[in-house]
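Please produce the structure of this protein holding iron/sulfur cluster.
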Amino acid sequence: MVAPPISADLALPEVLKESGQREVFCGLTSIVWLHRRMPDAFFLVVGSRTCAHLIQSAAGVMIFAEPRFGTAILGERDLAGLADANDELDRLVRELLERRPEIRTLFLVGSCPSEVIKLDLQRAAERLSAQLAGRVRVLNYSGSGIETTFTQGEDHALMAMLPLMPSSDEDQLLIVGTLADAVEDRFRLLFERMGVPRVRSLPPRRSTELPPVGAGTRLLLAQPFLSGTARALVHRGAKLIESPYPFGVEGSRLWMEAAAAAFGLAPAAVAAVLDPLEVRGRRALEPHRRALEGRRLFLLPDSQMEIPLARFLARECGMDLVEVGTPYLDRQLMAAEMALLPAGTRLSEGQDVEKQLERVRAERPDLVVCGLGLANPLEAEGIATKWSIELVFSPIHGCDQAGELAELFARPLHRRQLLSFV
Ligand code: SF4
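Below is the modeled complex.
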């Protein structure tokens, strides 16, 4: 079923559309932050050795801890027949659950090798859910690089959970998108102080404690890459709060004010909570603004966070935007952000990596925000880079974090400056 559009058409600036070779991580990468968020869930990637290597290297040191993800490698042996592959998967799941009885939700995560595409993971999840009823819920989604960029993995995982969310029309603010626990606690406290009646989150900290959704739900996106989830929640009755995203002082304040307005809270009471935060946040930004002001920034498409970050870096840190690329542009969810970009900002959607690199080389920006695969070659050409993936792993939301967020961009410029003295 196709969910209805969130709002009417909006007049937005012209965007250069590109399609060609892409250089982005696949949706499997999002397992790295999702498994930290829901410690009682396990992510079983059904894939190849390449997928296992990706998830292990993306997770880095976590692999030495007790991991809550693994890979069911479907190799040549399984190509003999899909029945064998299903039996193999069932056996692996049984063994996993014997070893790890604390698992409450098991995600079967699809990937792109052809032998996996042939396997019907939805049916496998239904079969295993029936076998394990009352003990473990088995869900499935695709993290395949053919269908997803790395942040879309979270969108797909949340959509897989959505049918299990109970229906309720009670009034609540539903924050959607993974936040660091400490950042989430802080937002909850601030919303409570403003007078928001009930604050819940998706994904929840326990995979079995899914929030309800219905006509009383006001939906506030914490991450800009959750288009599918937002539409599906609107389809279940939730009302989307349209706002910029909570990056930087300005974005965070507008985000919290939009939520407060959705509950009809008195602006004076909201300002009493937010004014001191704004003052502190702007003070923390100051030293980093001095480092970033006037520096030229090029964002290559990778995370779908590029437009909100560009808005923050231009308006609060004084950077000059050379080009802002995004892998996909959801014009409805991004309208409030695009309205805040400096007039004439060059926007591009999609990727043709060679053409984009040519533009980077021609422009010689001071800093390029890009995926890991492009960072080393650009550094070797003397261009400072910032890995966009770091922005998903770092606690960057909220007025309190604005200084840290700016520092993430000032650091590579500082490092390059030090190297130039060596
Ligand atoms: S792009 Fe495909 S094959 Fe490569 S790691 Fe991701 S899912 Fe696996």
